[in-house]
Specification:
The chain is an alpha/beta fold. The chain folds into three domains: about 180 residues, 3-Layer(aba) Sandwich (Rossmann fold), CATH 3.40.50.300; about 90 residues, Helicase, Ruva Protein, domain 3; about 55 residues, no CATH class. Helices cover about 45% and strands about 10% of the residues. The protein is built from 17 helices and twelve strands. The protein has a six-stranded mixed β-sheet. Strands 4-5 form a two-stranded antiparallel sheet. It has a two-stranded antiparallel ribbon with strand order 7-8. A hairpin with an 8-residue loop joins strand 7 and strand 8. The longest helix has 19 residues.
């Protein structure tokens, strides 16, 4: 598994090609990137998993004076804690079992350029102390070595965690936060910018699809996709587009195919997929242009009474379940998170999002 890499950016990369969309939220992110890019300040990018934090980091790099130098990315949450120090700072030959040769670390690899520390919120406490020292001294010492090696590396970090909560719980150092978050940028979830979905779909199709076998998404399909909560954010959308390009070349995707593509269940057998495609094609052919695609008769029609506000329904259901779980747990957030199969920090983020008090358990118990 690749856990860190050094690779040049695409020659034609621009802020616009890295940060796709025209929503107010993504326009604000682009404005902030242009503002901080030329500076040397450390940047902390916050946002949910899959929302495109690395793309923001790359956009910062290409808008800086360091753009001709390396961009090095390291996932701090994917590297075993006993290897993270060696990964970042390098090691001398013989410094530990398996260290058969001198190896430079990622700070040295990124010297003169940008080091992107992804999932910084998952960094172990002892490494947080060592990272803080490096940021203050602008120098590293390899594992097993004594020489102090100066490094000129800009740090851009990212996390999906609630850092304020991590600091409160003493899982993240406050002094390190202030060194990393000289310029914070918050990236919205895809759920909060559904108007960008059509542009993102076209962007992914341009990158992955062959011109002579290009899949198309109908207006109804794009509208249907705009109502999906996208828990995996832009990463999930990209996967859906790639799946569509593989399964349905030279075809047009309608809402029914979207439901099939988004499902997290195992893929259908070829015969089942053929039947479903034929069934939904017949439905599309009988649909009136003004009414959108008519669901096949074998599928229960939830739209008999009119359009469904999917986003509102999902929000209401999620809020209700959170309140019920807090009531069952007597207001104990950790127990409510267990009942909902969520991490405690994720539940607290959702409570803050919906304005749910920690005391709601006492009211609903």
């Amino acid at each position: 598994m690749t856990i860190a890499w050094t690779r040049p950016l695409d020659a034609g990369s621009t802020i616009e090609t890295l940060l796709v969309g025209e929503s107010e939220a993504i326009n604000e992110v682009r404005r902030l990137v242009r503002q901080v890019g030329p500076a040397s300040a450390s940047v902390l990018i916050m946002g949910p998993s899959g929302s495109g934090k690395e793309m923001v980091a790359r956009a910062i790099h290409i808008s800086s004076i360091r753009k001709s130098k390396p961009f090095v990315a390291v996932n701090c949450g994917a590297i075993p804690r006993d290897l993270l120090e060696s990964e970042l700072f390098g090691h001398e030959k013989g410094s530990f079992t398996g260290a058969t040769a001198l190896r430079k670390g990622r700070f040295e690899d990124a010297n003169g350029g940008t080091l992107f520390l992804d999932e910084i919120g998952d960094m172990p406490a002892d490494m947080q102390v060592k990272l803080l020292r490096v940021l203050e001294e602008r120098a590293i010492t390899r594992v097993g070595g004594h020489a102090v090696i100066p490094v000129d590396t800009r740090i851009v970090s990212a996390t999906h965690r609630d850092i304020a909560l991590s600091i409160e719980d003493q899982r993240f150092r406050e002094d390190l936060f202030y060194r990393l978050a000289v310029f914070p940028i918050t990236l919205p979830s895809l759920y909060d910018r559904p108007e960008d979905i059509p542009l993102l779909v076209e962007h992914f199709l341009d990158r992955i699809a062959e011109p002579d076998g290009r899949v198309k998404f109908s207006a109804g399909a794009l509208l249907h996709m705009s109502g999906h909560p996208w828990p995996g954010n832009v990463r999930e959308l990209r996967n859906v587009v790639e799946r569509a390009a593989i399964l349905y070349p030279n075809k047009t995707i309608h809402p029914e195919q979207v439901d099939l593509l988004i499902t997290r269940k195992a893929g259908l057998r070829p015969a089942e997929r053929k039947v479903l495609w034929a069934m939904t094609e017949r439905a599309a052919e009988t649909a009136a242009p003004e009414q959108g695609v008519v669901l096949p008769a074998v599928i229960a029609d939830p739209f008999a009474a009119g359009p469904v506000d999917l986003k509102a329904r999902i929000v209401a259901m999620e809020r209700e379940l959170i309140e019920l779980a807090l009531g069952r747990a007597g207001g104990v957030v950790a127990e409510a998170a267990r009942l909902l199969s969520l991490q405690r920090t994720t539940l607290i983020e959702k409570m803050n999002k919906y304005g749910i008090s920690r005391d709601v358990g006492a009211e609903t118990a």
